[in-house]
């Protein structure tokens, strides 16, 4: 069954690269959201197998998005993988307390992003 | 052992010998008893005498009155009888022979002096005593009124012979006749001398006789000789101790019991005697007293008893005597007190004599008794006193016959034996005690000295320790005193010590600074006691050398002071904290760090001062200290400032234990690391931001390249180029970012020296406009400015960068078709003071004036007030998405700020949200070339 991934990223370039990184290397479908609010809206109305989530976003940041996701029945079980440039120890400590499936740090290798996601999710991957 | 002896000789202020104790009260009682009895007896006698005198005088008075009534009063009665007889015709006034006989009989019967009738025609008939005291009848016949014939008579009244003839007698002219005729009724005549007889006075009762027609017939008269009254009075006053007298109200004497004539002969004539001229002193004085007492004799209306203050204290009674015919006399009875008191005085003398005898006998008896009782007791007393003086007595011989005293002797002898026995025991004990004392005295490690108790205070004996302390030999010390040896360091303490000893009797632990023979000084605690040794007052002084202790204490104090100052003045905050967390000593530094005054801080504890998030770790560290798992610990912790904010501190704690290892308290050192912490936090944040900011374009580059390299886009040239362009753009952004970071770092670290020179404002703005024009064109923004001819002293490139950055921001945030204005003006300090820029008020001193003020105004969305200052910080854009949407690295304004400040200018912004913003910065005018 085709996996469906939601990418929430405020940087347009990165949003596009992430989407291409998923779609060019797998048969998964990728949807994107430019803000946390838009992401939550999509997550609660559409069905996603996983969410790639940026942390540093204007308005609602990644931490708040996870909080909202986990507090709504419809979204609380969606696996979240953080895609973040925050690599300071303090950030890492905080991530450890969050209910997320994995963390992929920026800059990421676009050619292996899908592979990394599959690994974290325990999915098999077939190259396009 | 020496001991203080009780004062010998039980001296009491009031002691009375037993003998006097026994005799005196007894004698006093007897004297008092006898005296009271004697006095009462005397008083009662006196009262009896008064009563007696009153009774006696009453009796005498009564007797006199009775006599007067019967003697004097009868004359008037007889006159009345004769008058009645004439009126009834029984008596014929014309028959002088019968009348003469009748009168004679009456005269004899009633002992009258004369009874007579004088006719109105000058006739006269009377019988009585003649001048020679012989009885006679005298007649003046009617037939010849010029001749008075006097006849001698026999006992029957018969005329015997004519004995005298008198021509021209004037009987009608005599008082007795004339007074009665004048009165017209029976009266008494005034008192008159009887003829020329010496010492005789008489009074006549006269009654006029009228015929039925009321015509005067003559006067009936009876003469009374008053001398008779004196005799009666003399009879009544038979013992002559007192005096009785009768006087007229005029004070003339009528009769008296004294042997004195009431009418003595003066110059051959009998003259009436006035009572006040009486030879008898009692009469004279009493009369005078009566006049004085009543204010005249006429004033005495009632009988009165009196005791005039006269010699002999006489009792006096005065009684008026009156009758219906005008008689008005005073009867005065005088009885001297001596008459009665003589007896009573004799009686009193006898009483006093008897009392004296009784007193003498009683005193002798009581003296003997007292001697009898007191003698053996006196012996016992003497024996006891001798014993008290320490003179041993042999057993006393009991030679008293009194049981109790014999028993007393027996007890005394027994006591004597017991005392001897006890004394022997005590003496032995005392000797042993003295020996012990000597041993203790000599071997005591504490210096001891015995001195005289007088002002001199000379040493009598000292022990070896005393010699060691003072460094003197016994020979040098004995006989000298402290002053002579200069043992005392100052005179004051000597005086204090002596005063204490005098007032308290003893002194305990007196701190005494001494000097030894060699001049060493030290301190000793002295205890002094005044005692009696061998009957003499001595002072025992025991010293305890505390010099070492004093030095140790001083050293300790100094050490403590050093520690205290080190503690108090330490630059680092210090606190001593009890195991329960309570602060019990703090220094100034820690008070400053957490904003408390010392007293307030001492009310706090570790728990209340620690940020809740750090508390558990702090308590855990303390627990480990106390349990011995670690000796000290350091931690960074947040303290709570009194104002409520957090102060980052570095805390070092160690535990102090006592010798047994029991934890006592904690020593805490606290260092304020707020600045360091803040700097570190800013650095961390900057690194985090820079890291994030660098990674974002890098991610785009890496992602783009990864996609391109994978060949997945090889067949999609458009997509391929788009991704390639994305990589290029992000590379540029990355380069810009790195350049900005480096620029900023160089500017802020001061590692770059901006080369400054004179720059024309027009050149600067032109250069900036040239750089920014494409952007403005693209954004459809018009830039307006008015050039002014001014020159600033600045680095051209840097100021152009500032202007470019500010213009770039203004363009980016302005809506299309709006204007961005540039303005440059000269300003002085007064412009700032005119409150044109209130936000600058605090920083005025940082602006060097005069200067050029640049302002760049836009009509963009404006900046919220809370961001007006922070936008000049690094990566502090109002909106995080601005860097993407508007370009820019978030470092532009921070770079502007650094550049302006390096030019000694200021940069700030005024803005109203929705209306636009104006960025200002100042640059100093180029006045002269440096």
Protein described:
The complex is a heterodimer of chains A (128) and B (930). Chain A is built from 5 helices and 5 strands; from the N terminus they run E-H-E-H-E-H-E-H-E-H. In chain A, helix 2 (36-45) packs parallel to helix 3. In chain A, 40% of the residues lie in helices and 18% in strands. Chain A is α/β, with parallel strands linked by helices and 128 residues long. The radius of gyration of chain A is 13 Å and the shape is globular. The mean pLDDT of chain A is 90. A 5-stranded parallel sheet of chain A has the order 2-1-3-4-5, with helices on both faces. In chain B, the strands form 7 sheets. In chain B, strands 1, 2, 3, 4, 5, 6, 7, 8 and 9 form a 9-stranded antiparallel sheet that branches. In chain B, strands 11-10-16-15-14 form a 5-stranded antiparallel sheet. A 5-stranded antiparallel sheet of chain B has the order 18-17-21-20-19, with helices on both faces. In chain B, strand 7 (192-193) and strand 8 (201-210) form a beta hairpin. In chain B, helix 18 packs parallel to helix 23 (892-902) and helix 19 (761-779) packs parallel to helix 20. Chain B is elongated and about 235 Å long. The chains are: A alpha/beta (128), B alpha+beta (930). Chain A binds chain B through residues 10-14, 16-18, 20-21, 24-25, 56-58, 85-88, 90-91, 105-112, 128, and chain B through 684, 687-688, 691-692, 695-696, 698-707, 709-710, 712-713, 719, 723, 726, 729-730, 879-881, 884.
Report the total helices of chain A.
5
Helix-strand makeup class of chain A? alpha/beta
Largest sheet of chain B: 9 strands, antiparallel
- Please state the oligomeric state of the protein chains shown: heterodimer
Distinct helical segment count of chain B: 23
Structural class of chain B: alpha+beta
Average pLDDT, all residues of chain B: 84
Largest sheet of chain A: 5 strands, parallel
**Helical amount of chain A:** 25-40%
Using the CA coordinates, give the radius of gyration of chain A.
13 Å
What is the helical fraction of chain B, as a range of percent? 40-55%
Relative strand content of chain A: 15-25%
Mean pLDDT of chain A: 90
Helices and strands of chain A, in N-to-C order? EHEHEHEHEH
> For the terminal residues of chain B, how far apart are their CA atoms?
104 Å
Distance between the termini of chain A: 15 Å
Kindly state the number of beta strands of chain A.
5
Strand portion of chain B: 15-25%
Q: Give me the side-by-side strand order of the main sheet of chain A.
A: 2-1-3-4-5
Instruction: Label the overall shape of chain B.
Output: elongated
Low-pLDDT residue intervals, each spanning 5 or more residues of chain A: none
């Amino acid at each position: 069954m085709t996996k469906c991934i939601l990418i929430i990223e405020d940087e347009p370039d990165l949003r596009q690269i992430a989407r291409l990184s998923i779609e060019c290397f797998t048969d998964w479908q990728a949807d994107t959201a430019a803000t946390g609010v838009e992401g939550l809206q999509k997550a609660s109305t559409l069905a996603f197998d996983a969410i790639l989530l940026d942390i540093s976003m204007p308005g609602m940041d990644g931490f708040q998005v996870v909080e909202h996701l986990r507090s709504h029945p419809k979204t609380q079980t969606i696996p979240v993988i953080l895609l973040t440039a925050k690599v300071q120890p303090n950030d890492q400590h905080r991530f450890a307390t969050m209910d997320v499936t994995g963390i992929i740090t920026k800059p990421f290798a676009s050619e292996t992003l899908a592979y990394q996601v599959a690994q974290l999710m325990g999915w098999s991957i077939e190259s396009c | 052992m020496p001991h203080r002896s009780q004062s010998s000789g039980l001296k009491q202020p009031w002691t009375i010998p037993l003998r006097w104790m026994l005799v005196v009260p007894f004698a006093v009682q007897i004297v008092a008893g006898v005296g009271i009895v004697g006095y009462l007896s005397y008083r009662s006698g006196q009262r009896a005498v008064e009563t007696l005198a009153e009774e006696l005088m009453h009796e005498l008075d009564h007797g006199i009155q009775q006599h007067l009534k019967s003697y004097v009063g009868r004359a008037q009665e007889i006159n009345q009888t004769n008058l009645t007889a004439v009126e009834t015709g029984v008596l014929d006034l014309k028959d002088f022979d019968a009348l003469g006989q009748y009168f004679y009989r009456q005269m004899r019967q009633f002992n009258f002096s004369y009874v007579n009738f004088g006719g109105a025609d000058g006739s006269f008939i009377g019988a009585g005593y003649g001048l020679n005291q012989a009885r006679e009848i005298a007649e003046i016949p009617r037939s010849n009124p010029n001749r008075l014939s006097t006849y001698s008579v026999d006992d029957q009244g018969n005329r015997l012979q004519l004995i005298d003839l008198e021509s021209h007698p004037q009987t009608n002219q005599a008082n007795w006749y004339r007074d009665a005729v004048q009165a017209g009724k029976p009266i008494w005549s005034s008192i008159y001398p009887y003829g020329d007889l010496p010492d005789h006075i008489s009074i006549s009762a006269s009654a006029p006789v009228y015929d039925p027609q009321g015509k005067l017939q003559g006067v009936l008269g009876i003469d009374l000789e008053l001398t008779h009254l004196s005799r009666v009075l003399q009879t009544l006053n038979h013992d002559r101790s007192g005096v009785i007298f009768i006087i007229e109200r005029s004070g003339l004497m009528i009769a008296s019991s004294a042997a004195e004539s009431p009418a003595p002969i003066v110059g051959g004539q009998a003259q009436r005697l006035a009572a006040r001229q009486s030879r008898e002193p009692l009469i004279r004085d009493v009369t005078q007293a009566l006049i004085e007492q009543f204010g005249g004799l006429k004033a005495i209306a009632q009988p009165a008893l009196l005791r005039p203050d006269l010699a002999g204290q006489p009792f006096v009674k005065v009684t008026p005597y009156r009758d219906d015919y005008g008689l008005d006399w005073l009867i005065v009875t005088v009885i001297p007190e001596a008459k009665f008191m003589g007896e009573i005085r004799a009686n009193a003398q006898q009483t006093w004599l008897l009392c004296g005898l009784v007193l003498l006998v009683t005193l002798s008896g009581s003296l003997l008794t007292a001697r009898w009782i007191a003698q053996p007791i006196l012996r016992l007393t003497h024996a006891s006193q001798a014993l008290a003086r320490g003179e041993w007595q042999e057993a006393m011989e009991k030679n008293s016959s009194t049981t109790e005293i014999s028993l007393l002797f027996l007890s005394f002898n027994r006591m004597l034996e017991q005392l001897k026995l006890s004394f022997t025991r005590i003496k032995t004990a005392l000797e042993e005690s003295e020996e012990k004392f000597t041993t203790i005295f000599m071997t005591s490690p504490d210096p001891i000295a015995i001195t005289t108790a007088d002002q001199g205070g000379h040493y009598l004996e000292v022990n070896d320790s005393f010699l060691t302390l003072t460094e003197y030999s016994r020979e040098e010390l004995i006989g000298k005193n402290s002053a002579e040896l200069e043992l005392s360091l100052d005179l004051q303490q000597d005086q204090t010590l002596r005063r204490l000893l005098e007032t308290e009797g003893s002194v305990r632990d007196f701190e005494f600074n001494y000097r030894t023979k060699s001049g060493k000084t030290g301190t000793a605690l002295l205890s002094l006691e005044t005692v009696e040794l061998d009957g003499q007052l001595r002072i025992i002084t025991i010293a305890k050398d505390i010099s070492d202790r004093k030095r140790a204490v001083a050293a300790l104090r100094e050490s403590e002071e050093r520690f205290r100052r080190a503690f108090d003045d330490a630059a680092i905050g210090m606190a001593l904290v009890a195991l329960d967390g309570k602060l019990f000593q703090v220094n100034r530094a820690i008070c400053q760090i957490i904003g408390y005054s010392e007293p307030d801080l001492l009310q706090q504890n570790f728990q209340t001062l620690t940020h809740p998030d750090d508390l558990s770790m702090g308590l855990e560290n303390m627990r480990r200290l106390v349990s011995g798992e670690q000796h000290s610990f350091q931690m960074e912790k947040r303290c709570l400032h009194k104002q409520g904010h957090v102060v980052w501190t570095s805390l070092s704690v160690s535990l102090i234990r006592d010798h047994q290892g029991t934890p006592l308290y904690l020593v805490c050192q606290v260092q304020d690391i707020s600045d360091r912490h803040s700097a570190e936090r800013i650095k961390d944040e900057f690194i985090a931001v820079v890291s994030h900011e660098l990674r974002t374009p890098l991610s785009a580059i890496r992602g783009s390249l990864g996609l391109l390299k994978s060949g997945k886009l090889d067949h999609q040239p458009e997509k391929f180029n788009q991704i390639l362009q994305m990589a290029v753009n992000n590379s540029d952004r990355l380069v810009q970012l790195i350049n900005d970071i480096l620029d900023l770092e160089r500017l802020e670290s001061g590692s770059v020296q901006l080369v400054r020179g004179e720059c024309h404002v027009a050149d600067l703005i032109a250069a900036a406009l040239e750089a920014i024009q494409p952007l403005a064109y693209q954004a459809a923004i018009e830039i307006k400015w008015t050039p002014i001819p001014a020159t600033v002293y600045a680095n051209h490139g840097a100021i152009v960068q500032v202007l470019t950055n500010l213009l770039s921001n203004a363009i980016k945030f302005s809506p299309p078709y709006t204007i961005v204005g540039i303005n440059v003006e000269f300003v002085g300090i007064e412009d700032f003071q005119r409150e044109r820029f209130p936000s600058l008020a605090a920083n005025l001193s940082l602006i060097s004036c005069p200067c050029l003020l640049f302002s760049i105004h836009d009509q963009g969305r404006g900046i919220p007030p809370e961001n007006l200052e922070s936008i000049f910080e690094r990566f502090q854009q109002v909106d995080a998405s601005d860097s993407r949407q508007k370009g820019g690295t978030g470092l532009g304004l921070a770079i502007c700020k650094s550049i302006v400040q390096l030019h000694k200018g200021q940069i700030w912004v005024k803005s109203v949200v929705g209306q636009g913003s104006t960025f200002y910065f100042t640059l100093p005018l180029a006045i002269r070339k440096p």
